[in-house]
């Protein structure tokens, strides 16, 4: 065997993202790897690429035990990665990017300097291999998305690797360029290069893969061979897996007729296109899409964290001319971003301080006057009890010592204290254990029953089906489908978000 | 169009030169231009080192203190009859040591460069004042004779400056190391994923900066013949100004020593020289320098905003 992955497990903190993965690959074959967002595909790739190290298990590469501790180890061993988030230096030229890890040198008067000519010839050869006809000295930042993607592929080829891992390599490519890429992949295969091809495009995976593996929640659920003549529907079933159980608490209210939030033709250059939707009072609206579909970008833009280039937003039938976070807070609209560490928490501060933060204006007459801490503390305690946070001190324990689930509850408490009318919540339960998840769902339901509306962004279809009244599906920066509660169907939603041409 | 910024600074230098030449005829002479180069050499050398650090998206506030402390220690030793060349070597070693300390704290303990070098800025100055007992250190004449000597007919400070700029330019543009400095400045995360030796890049950038700060200090001392307690004060800000004027972005990953930083440093020196020549009120100098820097930095910021925007495209 060329590559053997034996019982590999990877944990991040308490969360295990890969569980007991076993995989074997022959030299000169193509493995297609599929799975939902967060199924562990990228983690597996990053382990082979030396970016992460497995928590346990073993990798045998070319009959030797393989334990890379850094990306350069993997490169040296003959493994190249084509990252979905292009790993290119936008300030450097194509030539420099392609040779950043190993420039050819020549001696000039005893000094070793770059051999620009040799480098350039090699760059031109690599660029023509990926079908890119462009000046090697062009700065990467000035290229189009498709050109960048092709440069990323050329870079992976530059070290003459024996294993190449492609992660969604053709998202920005035109049909012609993609056909070219597939020809290149077949050519590499005929030269005995082994390839792992990760994609949401199931047709591509079926077309290319000699072997197809499906990951679900960090577990390798199935591996098929070409002879199995597998279809996309079987793969989708494997990706989704188990039946939806009665894990989600029931909400006793229905959305009302009154529309409280509405967007019309929201547009942000290169990111969002013509986003139009409305949200009713007491409604939980779900937003699904694959990584890169523009979900988080959309809520960030709506909330004024990123710029919008056009379109209008209205709140309670009144146009919001300046959607800035400060204005939204004043209108009682709260946003919980997906990145707890970056945007949501002050990790070194106490729970009390963290929770009080967004409500300070409510508890003081004006920015200069003294905060009514007595009242505030009383309400913080109430909120904390409602969210069932497990802690030992409100005023003594810094929040970074809490578990992921409890941290999320702290953020939730912070916004609940402001008594929002609309809660926009991005990935409410990412990396959180089952028990805490249930508490959060339960809490959201109670708040909705009390009159709040929710816009919930998630990459877990189950969560959206369990919690939402309606689900919007985003694809390439625009809303591509809408599902009403009676039409909820995991396969249909996933299919709407995937790039399949069926 | 990526170099438009440099043209702006070059044009500004020409405009300033032309303006002073019109106001006062003595300004436009070979002798005066040589003077500007000699007076500006120390700043330009220090700024060259600073360029490396700023390209990696860092900053070094301690260069002025490095200049001072290195000068004081070796000056004291020369006064105490230590070998002159040993003292010169020591100056450079102290510079390297400063750079090493800065880089280690920044890399190992992940403290932001601003804070680390702010601390070494105070410590260096304090230590220097302690050793010199806040009195000026008067140096033997040999120092001055180095400062006024000529190498191949070129005044010593200018020769050193040209040599430093030439080597730095070659390192940044003609070596794999140089390319990596730009890569790390663009994104440490990407550099890590690409398997680049980040530690080596960060460490060397600060060491180069410390070394050149000490060398720049030496060039200045050799012209002055004495080290006053205020020697090197504000040098860090002047150096940063020169780098930024030269088109190197404080956001990292962009810029160069030649022509960039060299032109930036000469612009500052020309302004000072010209203002002296036209007998301007000395209080006006910082105001004018400030205005020039503000204009250039504003352009950098606008350019950066445009760039980040165009980078956000669909995967």
TrEMBL record, chain A:
Gene3D superfamilies in the cross-refs: P-loop containing nucleotide triphosphate hydrolases
InterPro entries in UniProt: AAA+_ATPase (IPR003593), ABC_carbohydrate_import_ATPase (IPR050107), ABC_transporter-like_ATP-bd (IPR003439), ABC_transporter-like_CS (IPR017871), P-loop_NTPase (IPR027417)
GO molecular function (one): ATP hydrolysis activity
Q: Which PROSITE patterns match?
A: ABC_TRANSPORTER_1, ABC_TRANSPORTER_2
Positions of transmembrane segments = none
UniProt keywords (A-Z) are: ATP-binding, Cell membrane, Membrane, Nucleotide-binding, Repeat, Sugar transport, Translocase, Transport
- In its keyword annotation, does this UniProt entry include Transport? yes
Which CDD domains does its entry note? ABC_Carb_Monos_I, ABC_Carb_Monos_II
**Domain (ABC transporter) ranges:** 3-242, 255-501
What name does UniProt use for this protein?
A: Ribose transport system ATP-binding protein
Automatic annotation (TrEMBL), chain B:
Q: Which InterPro entries match?
A: ABC_transp_permease (IPR001851)
The membrane-spanning stretches of this chain are 7-30, 36-54, 61-78, 84-105, 112-131, 151-172, 201-227, 283-302
Q: Does the keyword Metal-binding apply?
A: no
Q: What stretch or stretches form a coiled coil here?
A: none
Q: How does it sit in the membrane?
A: Multi-pass membrane protein
One Gene Ontology term of the molecular function aspect: transmembrane transporter activity
Q: Name one GO cellular component term.
A: plasma membrane
Record's subcellular location: Cell membrane
Kindly state which keywords UniProt assigns to this record, in alphabetical order: Cell membrane, Membrane, Transmembrane, Transmembrane helix
- Stated name of the protein: Ribose transport system permease protein
Question: What is the species of this protein?
Answer: Rhabdobacter roseus
Q: What is the lineage of its organism?
A: Bacteria, Pseudomonadati, Bacteroidota, Cytophagia, Cytophagales
């Amino acid at each position: 065997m060329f590559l053997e992955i034996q019982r590999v497990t990877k944990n991040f903190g308490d969360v295990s993202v890969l569980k007991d993965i076993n995989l074997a690959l022959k030299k000169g074959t193509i493995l297609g790897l599929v799975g939902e967002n967060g199924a562990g595909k990228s983690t597996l790739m990053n382990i082979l690429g030396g970016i992460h190290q497995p928590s346990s298990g073993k990798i045998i590469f070319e009959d030797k035990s393989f334990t890379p501790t850094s990306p350069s180890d993997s490169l040296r061993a003959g493994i190249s990665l084509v990252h979905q988030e292009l790993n290119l230096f936008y300030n450097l030229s194509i030539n420099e990017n392609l040779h950043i890890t190993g420039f050819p040198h020549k001696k000039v008067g005893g000094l070793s300097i770059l051999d620009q000519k040799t480098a350039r010839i090699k760059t031109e050869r690599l660029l023509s291999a990926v079908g890119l006809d462009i000046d090697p000295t062009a700065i990467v930042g000035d290229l189009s998305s498709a050109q960048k993607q092709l440069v990323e592929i050329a870079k992976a080829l530059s070290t003459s690797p024996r294993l190449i891992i492609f992660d969604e390599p053709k998202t920005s490519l035109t049909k012609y360029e993609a056909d070219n890429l597939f020809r290149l992949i077949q050519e590499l295969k005929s030269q005995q290069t082994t390839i792992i091809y990760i994609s949401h495009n199931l047709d591509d995976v079926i077309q290319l893969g000699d072997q197809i593996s499906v990951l679900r929640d960090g577990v390798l659920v199935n591996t098929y061979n070409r002879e199995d003549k597998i279809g996309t529907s079987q793969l989708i079933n494997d990706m989704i897996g188990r039946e939806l159980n009665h894990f989600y608490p029931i909400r006793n209210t229905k959305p009302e007729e009154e529309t409280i939030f509405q967007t019309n033709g929201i547009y942000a250059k290169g990111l969002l296109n013509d986003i139009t939707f409305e949200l009713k009072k007491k409604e939980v609206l779900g937003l699904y899409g694959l990584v890169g579909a523009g979900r988080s970008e959309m809520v960030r833009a709506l909330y004024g964290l990123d710029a919008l280039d056009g379109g209008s937003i209205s709140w309670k039938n009144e146009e919001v001319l300046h959607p800035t976070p400060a204005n939204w807070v004043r209108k009682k609209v709260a946003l919980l971003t997906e990145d707890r560490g970056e945007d949501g928490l002050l990790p070194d501060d106490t729970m009390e301080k963290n929770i009080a933060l967004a409500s300070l204006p409510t508890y003081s007459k004006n920015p200069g006057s003294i905060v009514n801490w007595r009242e505030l503390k009383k309400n913080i305690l109430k909120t904390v009890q409602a969210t069932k946070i497990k802690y030992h001190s409100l005023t003594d324990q810094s929040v970074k010592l809490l578990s992921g689930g409890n941290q999320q509850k702290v953020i939730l408490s912070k916004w609940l204290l402001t008594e929002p009318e609309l809660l926009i919540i991005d990935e409410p339960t990412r990396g959180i254990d089952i028990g805490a998840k249930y508490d959060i769902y339960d809490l959201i339901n109670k708040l909705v029953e009390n009159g709040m509306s929710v816009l919930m962004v998630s990459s877990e279809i189950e969560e959206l089906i369990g919690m939402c009244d309606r689900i919007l599906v985003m694809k390439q920066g625009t809303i591509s489908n809408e599902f009403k509660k009676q039409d909820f169907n995991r396969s249909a939603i996933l299919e709407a978000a995937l790039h399949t041409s069926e | 169009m990526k170099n438009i910024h440099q043209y702006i600074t070059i044009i500004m230098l020409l405009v300033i030169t032309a303006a002073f030449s019109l106001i006062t005829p003595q300004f436009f002479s070979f002798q005066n231009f040589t003077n500007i180069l000699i007076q500006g050499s120390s700043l330009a050398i220090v700024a060259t080192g600073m360029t490396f650090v700023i390209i990696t998206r860092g900053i070094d506030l301690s260069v002025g203190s490095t200049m001072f402390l290195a000068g004081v220690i070796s000056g004291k030793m020369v006064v105490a009859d230590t070998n002159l060349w040993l003292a010169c070597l020591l100056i450079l070693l102290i510079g390297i040591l400063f750079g090493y300390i800065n880089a280690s704290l920044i890399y190992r303990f992940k403290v932001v460069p601003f804070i680390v070098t702010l601390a070494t800025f105070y410590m260096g100055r304090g230590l220097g004042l302690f050793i010199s007992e806040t009195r000026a250190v008067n140096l033997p004449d040999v120092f001055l004779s180095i400062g006024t000597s000529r190498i191949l007919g070129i005044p010593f400070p200018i020769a050193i400056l040209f040599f430093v700029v030439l080597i730095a330019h070659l390192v940044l543009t003609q070596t794999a190391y140089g390319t990596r400095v730009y890569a790390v400045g663009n994104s440490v995360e990407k550099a890590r994923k690409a398997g680049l030796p980040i530690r080596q890049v960060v460490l060397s950038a600060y060491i180069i900066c410390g070394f050149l700060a000490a060398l720049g200090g030496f060039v200045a001392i050799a012209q002055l013949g004495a080290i006053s307690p205020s020697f090197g004060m504000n040098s860090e800000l002047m150096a940063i100004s020169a780098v930024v004027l030269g088109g190197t972005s404080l956001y990292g990953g962009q810029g160069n020593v030649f022509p960039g930083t060299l032109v930036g440093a000469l612009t500052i020196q020309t302004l000072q020289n010209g203002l002296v020549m036209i007998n301007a009120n000395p209080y006006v100098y910082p105001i004018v320098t400030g205005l020039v820097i503000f204009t250039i930095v504003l352009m950098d910021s606008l350019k950066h905003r445009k760039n980040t925007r165009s980078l956000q495209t669909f995967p």
